[in-house]
Amino acid sequence: MKAFVFHGAGQSAWEDVPDPAVKEPTDAVVRVDSVTICGTDLHILKGDVPEVRPGTVLGHEAVGEIVEVGGDVRTVRPGDRVLVSCITACGRCDYCRQGAYGQCRGGGGWILGHLIDGTQAEYVRVPYADLSVHALPAAMDSADAVLLADIFPTSYEVGVLNGHVRPGDTVVVVGAGPIGLAAISTARLFSPERIVAVDLVPARLEAARELGADAVADAREAPEQLVADLTDGLGADVVIEAVGVPESFELCTRMVRPGGHVANVGVHGKPATLHLEDLWIKNITITTGLVDTHSTPTLLRMAAAGRLPTSRLVTHTFPLDRMEEAYDVFARAADTGALKVVLGGERHDVVAVGTT
């Protein structure tokens, strides 16, 4: 089969690799229909995630069809159409029993495209299939459903829920890429007073407005002053970091009010300074996190009911064999207007929200 293989920092290729097979009785093999590219994949290609070994097939999000299952799999069978979650859960360790699947100590957690071969391929082996894939409604489009594998549960759990967004809050989302836009969409479920989006790219700020941001700010033009003006100098109740660079994290800590929450979602490859000389007195809460995907069944029901703007985040689609081109488009988002790039399925070369 063909797959997108990481060969070290700055090196990757769409190439032939062996077909996956069931190795454990809890495994399933899925024929991939649709996949997407994550910002974390770009971090891997830059060398920011050293655990990923050369020779690994990348990708941790997919929709596809079950073609083979191990003898212990009970909830899916060949022919079922499923969402492959970005998180794998053994279901037995203490963390899994608490619903903290991202911290699984039984061989799960974030392993696809990280510690084992991932989803950016024609087929993928999924360990612990009973808890790590989700059956899909027949009417749900694959290009929409694949966004429920990672970005929506990540933004909702690590951003909105960890940030304790409440009715009447001022919420600032720093970074209006796919995760930030999904955070804006899911924060709206809690009726905040206002949502402010901060980014460097005008097209992404326009997309943020379309998806529910009440105000937007260019990150180069003192957004903390805008937030101060909107909140009588107090700052935001919740600030969600959705970029993953030191400057954006430090900006978040300057915009939060006393007693507020900073929810870090971004994947950081470099150290960020924690200015405790300013923050020690402010009673703020800073959270980090890897998504657990405990919310995925709920989000799937909401998406099926049309309550999540999944399709509005998909700006480009490609056939699976144009993986290298899709990576180039996604990596140059400031030039291409890319938000979420989806490969496979039936729709190709779509240009939608946030592009020209």
From TrEMBL:
Transmembrane segments: none annotated. The keyword Transcription does not apply. Residues 8-343 form the Enoyl reductase (ER) domain. PROSITE patterns: ADH_ZINC (PS00059). Pfam families: ADH_N, ADH_zinc_N. Keywords: Metal-binding, Oxidoreductase, Zinc. GO terms for molecular function: oxidoreductase activity; zinc ion binding. Its cofactor is Zn(2+). It comes from the Bacteria. The keyword Hydrolase does not apply. PANTHER family: NADP-DEPENDENT ISOPROPANOL DEHYDROGENASE (PTHR42813:SF4), ZINC-TYPE ALCOHOL DEHYDROGENASE-LIKE (PTHR42813). Belongs to the zinc-containing alcohol dehydrogenase family. This is Alcohol dehydrogenase. The lineage of its organism: Bacteria, Bacillati, Actinomycetota, Actinomycetes, Kitasatosporales.
